[in-house]
Amino acid sequence: MSGPGLADLATAAGPRGTLVTVGWLDPRPASMPMQAPLTIHRYMSFEHTLDPVVVRRMAAFLGAGLRTGAIVPTVDRTFTLEQAAEAHRHLEQGDPFGKIVLTV
Q1: Which among 20-29, 35-44, 69-78, 88-97 has the top mean pLDDT?
Q2: pLDDT 10s digits, 33-56
Q3: Nearest C-alpha neighbor of 5 from the set 27, 16, 38, 15
Q4: Burial of 28 (0-12, 13-18, 19+ CB in 10 A)
Q5: For residues 8-25, b (16+ Cβ closer than 10 Å) or e, as one string?
Q6: Contact partners, residue 44, CB within 8 Å, separation at least 6
Q7: Is the distance from CB of 83 to CB of 91 less than 8 angstroms?
Q8: In this predicted structure, what is the pLDDT of residue 34?
Q9: CA angle 77–80–84, rounded 5-degree value
Q10: Strand residues in the chain grouped as ranges (E)
Q11: Which domain of life is it from (predicted)?
């Protein structure tokens, strides 16, 4: 995550919060959050996906966070695979608050 939404994410995480961002695809400027202390784990390029050791480390880190509850994903809405077109329309209508999940 980059762009202007980074400051909002930092505010939501709160003081002593932890932010995990993957991708950094938004080309717009990102105002860096001034909340202190704030831990930010950034995965900024896709080059890391070419290294299987790094991919395993990332998967272990994220998996452990999910298992322990240290990372709790925010889900906006869940759709079945058959509802993929509807899910896409939902994304196009604006910024959902959280991730869109397709179940198989």
Answers
A1: 69-78
A2: 666 788 877 766 666 677 888 889
A3: 27
A4: exposed
A5: ebbeebeeebebbbeebe
A6: 23, 24
A7: no
A8: 66
A9: 85
A10: 18-22, 39-43, 75-80, 99-103
A11: Bacteria
pLDDT tens readout for residues 53-76: 888 998 999 999 999 999 988 889
Q: 15 near 37, Cβ under 8 Å?
A: yes
Largest CA distance in the chain: 44
Sign of CA dihedral 55, 76, 30, 94: positive
d(CA 9, CA 23): 15
Distance (Å, whole) CA 50 – CA 66: 23
Residue 25 scores a pLDDT above 80? no
99: β partners: 75
The structure tokens listed for 95 are 């910024």
In this structure, what token pair is assigned to residue 98? 């959280």
Nearest Cα neighbor of 34 from 15, 47, 52 is: 15
